[in-house]
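Friendly challenge for the regulars: who can give me the C-alpha cells for this chain first? No prize, just bragging rights.
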Amino acid sequence: MELVSLNETNTSFGIDKVKLHTKQFHVRELNLEKGWVGVPPRIQLNSKSDVWYVTGQGQELNEEKWYNNIGPAIVEVKQGGLGIHYNPSTIDHNFELTKDLSRSWEQVKHQLDDLGIQWEEDSCPMTRVDLTKQRVMQHPSYVYTNALGMVKGKRMNSRTYGSNAVEVRNTQRALVCYDKTLQLREQKNVTDAPNNLLRMEARWTSKKSIGALHQGLHLTNVGQLVTASTAHLEDCYNKFLTNNVFRTDGEQLSLDLVTERDVLTYYLNRHERGAFKQYVSSFGIPTMVEKFGQNLDLLHTLLLDVGYSRAQAYRNVDELRKSIQDFQGIQELRGGASPMTHLEHLQTTFTSSCLV
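First reply, four minutes later:
Bragging rights claimed.
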C-alpha cells in the first residue's frame, strides 16, 4: 500500500476506479450465504424467463443479474458476462489516493476465488479506468469549478452540477472536477477530510479509449495496469488534461466565433451608438479575457468582420485592453483574482508532475 498523504503544498496522484468485463468465466456456485443477491427477471405477460446459465453445481440462472458487494469489489454476473468494479484508493483510505495497485488487486482476485468464480484474471479487459489528482486549495472549491466550467474541451461538452462540480466529457473520455470534502460529508458522512479538497478525475470509459496509443493509456488488460509505472500513468493523465481540457484561447474560441459574431451583430442592431460598450458591460471584463485572451487579436478580427472600420476596431480594442489592465490592477490591490487566473492555477497545479 502506497498512500499519498495530503498537505497544503502537495498535489497527490492515484488510481480511483477500475471496471472490468469478460465473457470468459465460470461460476462454480452461487452461495447465498456469501452475499449473492439476485435481481428478479423482467417477464412480460404470457411469457417466461429463459435459463441463461447453469453453474458448476447445477443451479439454473434466469434472473436479470446476480451481484455481490460484500468485498472490496462489486461483482455482477448476468447474461452479458462477468462485471467487476472496484476503487483501489477507497479500499485503503476514505480520501487519500494510492498509486500501488498490487495490494488491492490481490484482494479482488481473492474475493472472486472465494466466490467460486474462475475467470481471466490478469488478462481481463478493462472498460473504465479513472486516474485522479487532488489538492487542498487556497480558496473554496466552487471558485475553481466555476472557472473550469467555462472551458470548452476538444470535441467535449461541459456540464455543471450545482456550484461544486463540473464535467467535461464525450463518449470515450471525461474529466470530472468536484469538491471532495463536500462529497465525503454529504454522501459518506466522513468528516475528517481537510477543507477545500479539490479532486480532478480523468476517466477513460471504453476498451478502445483505454487502449489508445496517443489519447489513452496504451493498456489492454488489468494485468498491464497493475504493473504500469506511476510515471506512465501520470503522464497519460497530464497529457489528457493538457491536450483535451486546458487548451489555448484560440483553440477554445475557434468553435464559438460564429456564435460570438451573431451576438455582437445583435448589439449593433439594438444600439445605434455605444454597441460595443453595451456588449462588454453585459458580459464583464473577466469574461472578455476568458473569451478572447489577453492580446484581443481575435476580437479585433471579429469587429472588422461585423462591419467596424479599422480605426473603430482599433479604438474599441485599445480601450478594452486598458480597462482590463485597470481591472487586474484593482484585483491585485484587493488581493483577488479573475476566473482566468484560477483557471491558469488549475492547469499548473494539476498538470505538473507529482514525482518531482
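Residues 251-344 form one domain. The mean pLDDT is 87. Your move, everyone else.
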